[in-house]
């Protein structure tokens, strides 16, 4: 019964945590028995079971319970198969979504060598706009996961494609994550490539795209500032923040936490 398999998936993370805490007594139980179940349920015929398996996998990755070898030899190959050009539409949408979510939890080498080539292919998927939209909405996270060199060499050309996509929701998603993409690039790329691209979004024919671009204008401009003098930095949750000055931090009347302001750079695309 699918409901039984779904319930089982929901119990995997707490069991895995227990086994990790009791590892001297159960050194290989998780890797030998539980991890194969999680991987198998990523391709289950039932939608609800697959979603439960995906959620369980993300929790296990967040808790750092999955071995690097299992990620590279078991998880990534399954996701690459599910996101292949000839894969079922529903499976492909789910696969690209989980690839984007797990990118920030994996090592840069694993993301760049195993997942980035497929992500670039999916950005140009001409069959499913839902796939391109997921890529656009998570573009900043992927840039952050692979770093400046891979972003400028492989991702910026794809970002240009998405920013000129015929579907306005794609362009809106790009406008919303523009600051996160810009933050990952060099000052020269920001000036020579991203600035003209941003102007095209702020002049877009769709008012929803223009509105999203105007909302991202301040955060985008902030990426041109020198962090050491401006005190700007990007938090792990993708928000632009300002560090309090040393003078403010030493003030007896204010606590440092009260002097930090944040500007969100990402909202859900519609």
At the first level of CATH, the class of the largest domain is Mainly Alpha
Count of strand segments = 3
Q: How helix-rich are the residues, as a percent range?
A: 55-70%
Q: What name does the CATH topology of the largest domain carry? A: Leucine-rich Repeat Variant
Output the radius of gyration: 21 Å
Count the helices. How many? 15
Strand order of the largest sheet: 1-2-3
* Morphology: elongated
Q: Based on helices, strands and strand pairing, what is the structural class?
A: mainly alpha
Look at the structure and give the mean pLDDT: 83
Taking the sheet with the most strands, its summary is: 3 strands, antiparallel
Can you tell me about this structure?
- It is a single chain.
- The chain is mostly helical.
- It folds into 2 domains: 1-66, no CATH class; 67-235, Alpha Horseshoe (Leucine-rich Repeat Variant).
- It has 15 helices and 3 strands.
- It has helices at 2-21, 29-41, 47-62, 68-82, 89-102, 108-123, 129-137, 139-146, 148-163, 168-176, 178-183, 187-202, 207-222, 227-230, 246-250, and strands at residues 232-234, 239-242, 262-264.
- Strands 1-2-3 form a 3-stranded antiparallel sheet.
- Mean pLDDT is 83; it is low at 245-270.
- One of its GO terms (cellular component) is cytoplasm.
- This is PP4R1 phosphatase.
């Amino acid at each position: 019964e699918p409901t039984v398999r779904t319930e089982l998936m929901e119990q995997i993370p707490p069991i895995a945590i227990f086994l990790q805490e009791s590892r001297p007594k159960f050194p290989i139980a998780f890797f030998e028995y539980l991890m194969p179940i999680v991987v198998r349920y990523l391709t289950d015929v039932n939608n609800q079971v697959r979603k439960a398996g995906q959620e369980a996998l993300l929790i296990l990755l967040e808790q750092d319970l999955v071995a690097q070898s299992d990620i590279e030899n078991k998880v990534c190959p399954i996701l690459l198969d599910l996101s292949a050009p000839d894969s079922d539409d529903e499976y492909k949408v789910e696969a690209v979504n989980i690839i984007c979510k797990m990118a920030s939890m994996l090592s840069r080498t694993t993301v760049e060598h195993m997942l980035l080539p497929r992500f670039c292919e999916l950005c140009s998927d001409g069959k499913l706009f839902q796939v391109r939209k997921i890529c656009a909405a998570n573009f900043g996270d992927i840039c952050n996961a692979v770093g400046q060199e891979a972003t400028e060499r492989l991702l910026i050309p794809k970002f240009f494609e998405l920013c000129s996509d015929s579907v306005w929701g794609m362009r809106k998603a790009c406008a919303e994550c523009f600051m996160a993409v810009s933050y990952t690039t060099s000052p020269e790329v920001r000036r020579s490539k991203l600035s003209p691209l941003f102007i095209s979004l702020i002049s877009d024919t769709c008012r929803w795209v223009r509105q999203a671009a105007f909302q991202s204008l301040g955060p985008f401009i902030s990426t041109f500032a020198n962090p050491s003098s401006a005190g700007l930095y990007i938090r792990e949750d993708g928000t632009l923040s300002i560090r309090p000055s040393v003078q403010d931090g030493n003030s007896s009347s204010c606590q440092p936490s009260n002097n930090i302001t944040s500007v969100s750079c990402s909202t859900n695309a519609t």
